[in-house]
Amino acid sequence: MKPPVFDYEQPTSLRAALESLSRNTGTFKLLAGGYSLLPLLNARTISPECIIDISRIGELRYVTEEAGTIRIGALATHDQVMNNSAVIRECPIVFEAYKHVGNHTIRNRGTLCGSLCFNDPTAEMPLIMSLLGATFVVRSSWGSRTLSANDFFKGPFTNSLMPNEMLVEVRIPRQPAGHGHSFIEISQRYGDRGLAAAGCMLTLKYGVVSDVRIGFRNLGEGLGRVRAVEAELENKAVNAAAIDAASTAARQSVRPEADMHADAEYRRDVAATLTKRVIETALMRAGQTSHVPSFSGRLS
Q1: Sign of the Cα pseudo-torsion (103, 107, 108, 114, in order)
Q2: Within 13 Å, how many C-alpha atoms sit on residue 181's CB side?
Q3: What is the distance between the alpha carbons of residues 209 and 54, in angstroms, rounded to a whole number?
Q4: Are 94 and 74 within 8 A, CB to CB?
Q5: DSSP 8-state assignment for residue 59
Q6: 24: closest CA among 7, 41, 5, 47?
Q7: What is the CA radius of gyration of the chain?
Q8: Higher-scoring residue by pLDDT: 84, 259
Q9: How far is CA 112 from CA 65, 79, 117, 253, in A?
Q10: Structural domains of the chain sorted by starting position, each given as residue range(s) with its CATH number in brackets
Q11: Which of these, 81, 141, 265, 273, has the minimum number of CB atoms within 10 Å of its CB?
């Protein structure tokens, strides 16, 4: 199919793009990488009056580290983020999760910020940014504001951007020294859309777990971090009982829907299993730099 008729603008600076957003009072969409937007246009799922193409704004295509904070511009591609040395060193969970994001062609053109704004329930990066405690810098011609991941994401395919605003930067803070991390995704075939995913970050010191961050994707509406699961581990000694309690909490907390690929009960089982696996892997990685012997296998 062919997309509907629309007006087209291609600003070459952030200032010009913000002016375009303020000037357009009808329905419009921003175009960056295009991997989320173009299929919707071609299927005529959406019919915007105007497309504002921001892909030529070079000042937004960067990944830098400043004072321990990683700053990612709106036009930084997935590959740029994935292969950045500071990201690999400071946020290894990003590199791990990116192995499940599309393929090289998609990662070479698609943008991180575009994926975050689209917020597909099966997308990996919204969960990863939530686990990392990332903040989102949003700008309009009137000014700027900073949102947490919890405030930015509002539900499947929705976010908190006002009509005249755009996401210009993501900031990832420095993670605790010696933290453990893990991300696992289940799909029918490698590279397919994920049936379910789970991620975990934590710190292990003297056998006690702290700063626990656990979340899921595609296991119910609006899922990111799940506090009920995190509470089963936070400030507690590492043992099998605590991991089992977190797994049970995961099963009870998710509200998955059945579809042609998997029923709800299967997805609840997956949530419980993935919770155990990501916790155990994160503990093993944290144990390699903590004040206790490295974790391997189930704890007794």
Answers
A1: positive
A2: 19
A3: 44
A4: no
A5: G
A6: 7
A7: 20
A8: 84
A9: 16, 9, 9, 28
A10: 7-53 (3.30.43.10), 58-172 (3.30.465.10), 181-287 (3.30.390.50)
A11: 265
Q: Model's pTM, two decimal places?
A: 0.91
What the block records as the tokens of 282 is 């994160």
* pLDDT for 191: 67
User: In 3D, which of 162, 160, 171 has the Cα closest to residue 136?
Assistant: 171
30: which 2 tokens? 């921003």
Give the pairing type, strands 7-9 and 50-53: parallel
Residue 209, token pair as written in the block = 């777990």
Of the candidates 233, 234, 235, 216, the one whose C-alpha atom is nearest the C-alpha of residue 225 is 216
Beta carbons of 200 and 214 less than 8 angstroms apart: yes
**What span, in angstroms and rounded, lies between the C-alpha atoms of 192 and 201?**
25
CA 259, 265, 266, 269 dihedral sign is: positive
* CA 212 to chain CA centroid, nearest Å: 17
Closest CA to 206 of 296, 292, 288: 292
Inter-CA distances, 280 with 181, 184, 204, 289, Å: 10, 12, 12, 15
Residue 167: predicted pLDDT: 98
Residues in contact with 262: Cβ distance below 8 Å, sequence separation at least 6, in sequence order:
195, 196, 270
What is the spatial distance between Cα 180 and Cα 281, in angstroms, rounded to a whole number?
A: 8
Neighbours of 191 (CB within 10 A): 12
| Overall size of the chain counted in residues | 300
Mean pLDDT, to the nearest integer, of 23-39? Answer: 88
Cα 118 from Cα 127, distance rounded (Å): 13
Dump pLDDT digits (tens) for 117-170: 999 988 999 999 999 999 999 999 999 999 999 899 988 889 999 989 999 999
